[in-house]
C-alpha cells in the first residue's frame, strides 16, 4: 500500500519550494494542496496549530512543520535515494549551520529592502550584499555548496534565486555584479529538473510580492 504524502504549500513560497525540490530529488509521489493564507484551511490549522503557516508535510496523517526540518525528514525517511545531507557528522553539522544561516538572513534582510526607506534602506542594502558575499565565499569554486553533489544547503538557498530580481529592483543593485559565482551556481541548480519544476519566473514573483507587500 502506497504511503500517503500531502504537502500544504503556497506556490510562491521559497520555503515550500524547498520541500518540493527535496521530494522531487527523492522521487516521492505526493499530493500538493495550495493554501490560501488569507483564509487558512481547517487542515492547515490542525496540522500546524503553533505557527499556522506553510509548508506542512503530512506523512501518513502525521504533520511535519518548518521547511528545513521537513527537508531533513524527507532525507531520513526516503533514505534509498541520493542523500541530501552528508554522512560525515562534521560535514552534516556544517550543512545545518549554513541552512540555519540562510533561514535567519536571506528572507529577513531581503524583505528590509522594501520595508525600509532612506538611510535605513541603504544600510539594509549594504547588509544584504554582505550576506550574499558570505555565501559566495562559502561556495567558493565548488559546483554545489556540498561539493560535487547537490544537497541540503543548495535546497535551502536556491528557491530565493527567484526572489533575486525583487531584491535587486527594490535595493537598486545587481546580484550578479556583487556575487557572480552565486548567480552561476543558481543557473547550475536550475539545470536540475527538481529545481526547474519548482521555480517560477522572477518577474511574476516580483509582481506577486509587490501586490502582497504594497511596495513601489
Q: What does this entry look like structurally?
A:
The structure is a single chain. The model has no long low-confidence stretch (mean pLDDT 96). The chain folds into two domains: 5-77, 3-Layer(aba) Sandwich (Glutaredoxin); 89-213, Glutathione S-transferase Yfyf (Class Pi), Chain A, domain 2. A hairpin with a 2-residue loop joins strand 3 and strand 4 (62-65). 57% of the residues lie in helices and 8% in strands. The radius of gyration is 17 Å and the shape is globular. With 216 residues, the chain is an alpha+beta fold. It has helices at 14-26, 42-47, 67-77, 89-115, 118-139, 152-157, 164-171, 175-178, 180-190, 193-196, 202-213, and strands at residues 5-9, 31-34, 56-59, 62-65. The protein has a four-stranded mixed β-sheet with strand order 2-1-3-4, covered by helices on one side. It is built from eleven helices and four strands, in the order E-H-E-H-E-E-H-H-H-H-H-H-H-H-H. Helix 1 (14-26) runs parallel beside helix 3.
Rg is 17 Å
Spatial order of strands in the largest sheet: 2-1-3-4
Percentage beta strand: 5-15%
Q: How many H/I helical runs?
A: 11
Uncertain segments are none
Q: What is the global morphology?
A: globular
Features:
single chain, 216 residues, alpha+beta, Glutaredoxin, Glutathione S-transferase Yfyf (Class Pi), Chain A, domain 2, four-stranded mixed sheet, 4 strands, 57% helix, globular
Amino acid at each position: 500500500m502506497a504511503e500517503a504524502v500531502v504537502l500544504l504549500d503556497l506556490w510562491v513560497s521559497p520555503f515550500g519550494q524547498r520541500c518540493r525540490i527535496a521530494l522531487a530529488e527523492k522521487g516521492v509521489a505526493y499530493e500538493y494542496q495550495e493554501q490560501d493564507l488569507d483564509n487558512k484551511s481547517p487542515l492547515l490549522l490542525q496540522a500546524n496549530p503553533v505557527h499556522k503557516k506553510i509548508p506542512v508535510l503530512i506523512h501518513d496523517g502525521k504533520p511535519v512543520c518548518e521547511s528545513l526540518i521537513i527537508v531533513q525528514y524527507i532525507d531520513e525517511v526516503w533514505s534509498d535515494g541520493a542523500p541530501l545531507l552528508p554522512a560525515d557528522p562534521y560535514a552534516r553539522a556544517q550543512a545545518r549551520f549554513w541552512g540555519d544561516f540562510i533561514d535567519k538572513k536571506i528572507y529577513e534582510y531581503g524583505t528590509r529592502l522594501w520595508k525600509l526607506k532612506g538611510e535605513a534602506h541603504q544600510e539594509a542594502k549594504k547588509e544584504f550584499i554582505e550576506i550574499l558575499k558570505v555565501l559566495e565565499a562559502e561556495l567558493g569554486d565548488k559546483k554545489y555548496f556540498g561539493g560535487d553533489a547537490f544537497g541540503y544547503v543548495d535546497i535551502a538557498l536556491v528557491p530565493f534565486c527567484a526572489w533575486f530580481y525583487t531584491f535587486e529592483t527594490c535595493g537598486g543593485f545587481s546580484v550578479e555584479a556583487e556575487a557572480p559565482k552565486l548567480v552561476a551556481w543558481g543557473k547550475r541548480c536550475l539545470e536540475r529538473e527538481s529545481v526547474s519544476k519548482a521555480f517560477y519566473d522572477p518577474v511574476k514573483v516580483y509582481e506577486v510580492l509587490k501586490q502582497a507587500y504594497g511596495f513601489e
